[in-house]
Amino acid sequence: MWKEYNKVSNLISAAALKGLDVSASSVVGKSRSEWFETVHQLIGPYDMAKDFKDLSCVDFNTYPSWSLDWFCKQGYGALVKHRWRGLPVQLNTIVKEIHYTSQDKVEIETSKGKLNPRKCIVTVSNGILASENIKFFPKLSEEKVEAFNKIKMGIYNHVAGLFEEKFFREIGMEEMDMYLYYKISGSNISPRGMGCLMNISDSNLCYFDYGGDFAKELENEGEAVQKSFTIEQLKSIFGSKIDKYLLKLHATQWGKNKFTLGSYASADPGFAHLRKYLKMPVEDKIFFAGEATAFEYASVSGAHRSGVRAADKVIKTLNF
Length: 320
Known about the structure:
Blueprint (H helix, E strand, L loop, with lengths): L1 H16 L6 H5 L7 H13 L8 H5 L14 H8 L11 E5 L7 E4 L2 E3 L4 E3 L3 H6 L3 E3 L4 H9 E4 L1 E8 L1 H6 L7 E3 L14 E4 L6 E7 H10 L1 H16 L2 H5 E6 L12 E4 L7 H4 L7 E3 L11 H19 L2
Parallel strand pairs: 1-5, 4-13
Antiparallel strand pairs: 1-2, 2-3, 6-12, 7-10, 7-11, 8-9, 9-10
Helix pairs in contact: 1-3
């Protein structure tokens, strides 16, 4: 499998290094390898939340090789709550409009009234910004609006499964946080298979992940279909023992989440150059952060660093 993976990723990188901001599908083509569908799923839907036809070679190649992921057994939400426990945060507050015509302040209209800060950091997803659910007055530049629409949200959903501890012993999986790869069959524009992360933080919890158009198809058909397809795939790998050890499943549906309208953002082919516009501040009043503006896009670590970057810029403009 890794021979095919290296071959495909090298083709994408070679195109990017030539400055060819084209789709991955246009340089990869189709392979006769029995592992091609799995590799397509890993590089496209699993990494970028998009299929090869929607994946920019240049955008893919700019992701830093040194980025690492670590898991928090108590859940990322618990980590965030502890790390920033002293910050005053107003939850369940929907921003509707942002006005930046005044010289010394920004006017923000929310579902709970108006705010009048001197500066504003916008951290919502490109899905929300592209939808114009938040109105800006005056309108933002054409370059910024185009960037919201062309650094487009993909779909990446988890089906989380909780298993009895005996399951991992029976399949011979003695370590936690293990990735499982299997041959995805067929020859599809969007691979009809899943990525598998097993026994996360020794919690007996596994993620079975879908991305791209196939993830959107499953999401549109509903949670029951997401779960049933996952069980079918698990039985094809492990056999009927799944019925004995699987305790429960839960499926995410990020495409239908009205507060994100997708999972995370990557550039359409031909538009990777627009990323630079995402993080550009507006009149030193409105600043932008979030995963799409980050060097390590599509990650919480990148989102965090982008917030620190934006906050540092705000501090400098305030002359603290």
